[in-house]
Amino acid sequence: MRLMLTSLWQRLRADFAMLLAFLGFAALSFVFLKLASEVLEGETMTLDRWIITGLRSADPTVPIGPSWFETMMLDVTAMGGVWGLTLITLFVTGFLIVARKYATAGFVALSVIGGALLGTGLKALFDRPRPDLVPHLVEVSNASFPSGHAMNSAVVFLTLGALLASTHRSRRVRIYLISVAVGLTLAVGFSRVYLGVHWPSDVVAGWCIGAAWAILCWITARLLQRTHQIEQPGAVPVEEEGGPP
Hints:
This protein has helices at about 1-40, 45-55, 65-80, 80-100, 100-125, 150-165, 170-195, 200-225. It is mainly alpha-helical and about 240 residues long. The chain has a single domain, classed as Vanadium-containing Chloroperoxidase, domain 1, CATH 1.20.144. Helix 1 (about 1-40) packs antiparallel against helix 8, helix 4 runs parallel beside helix 6 (about 150-165) and helix 7 (about 170-195) runs antiparallel to helix 8 (about 200-225). It is globular. Mean pLDDT is about 85; it is low at about 240-245.
């Protein structure tokens, strides 16, 4: 009886977490669509301009703060670039392959690639020009909305943070891992505005759609785990060829 009640409680907790995830996905998607509508109508421009110019000194070529902070922002923004996120993704998928969690490794890779393709498509769809109020402190070449750095950082860091958190029973460890993932995502997004290459609304939109994609991937992963199509969190594959230690 006790075992049955424990199993029922665990199932209810899992279903409640799934419900919260669906609600989070819906809310973030709504905010993104609402923000996109306001951007197209030019309703965000006043606040965007105020924030962009507020992050520069009297000389618009010089951002506020000490010189070391600008250097740090350049390093942070590089971490959220194509090569930085690619290396992180390759490291994690490689680890999963070594751990023989092949299905999970493939799922992580497809999640990141799918998020990158979604961001590229959205940029082409909206084709918003980059900010022209202040000089750009890093080189950029494509459209502005949504921020690819903010979106892809949310996809990679939040997906990997959730994946790592699911392998630990300690609540403190899980909170720490998710907090680090969120912190890195926010830092990368802020760096894009600080360096003058994105409107703040670009970054907020990137965070929203990136987090929504990460939640959708988490929901999909949980459903696949229930049907045993990808490995359970913390599961250790059985050795194919056993032998004495």
